[in-house]
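Onboarding guide, step 5: your first structure request.
Type a short instruction followed by the sequence, for example:

Predict the 3D structure of this protein.
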Amino acid sequence: MMLKTTNHPHKEAIYFLAEQARCLIQAGSADADICKSAAEYLINDDEILTNWLAEKTNTKLLSDKLQDYDTEEFEGKTDTLKIALKDLQALVAEEKTPAKERAWLKNATEIIAEFYCEMT
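The system replies with structure tokens like these:
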């Protein structure tokens, strides 16, 4: 996970938003845009992370929607997921988060939580 080397305060959330966007792109789901837009908002013009997100989500639609998703496994992924979801929920609840971005973050949080609950 490349984001381990960054000090970005939302690195866990960005990672799972990008991973989920990639999976949804491969599945042909329009929800991919929600996750990608939420990640872009959190990245906030950080050039390195913007390039990383572009690379991570530069994928093609899979012909079989049940084919392997690119869901990287790493030690501590469950704990990292919990941190990401908590961070996203806090951003949704934060009044200074703009309404449009709050909607992206809320929808993306629900998508990620549902996806990973189904996988466990």
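Each response can be followed by summary notes, for example: The longest helix spans residues 99-119.
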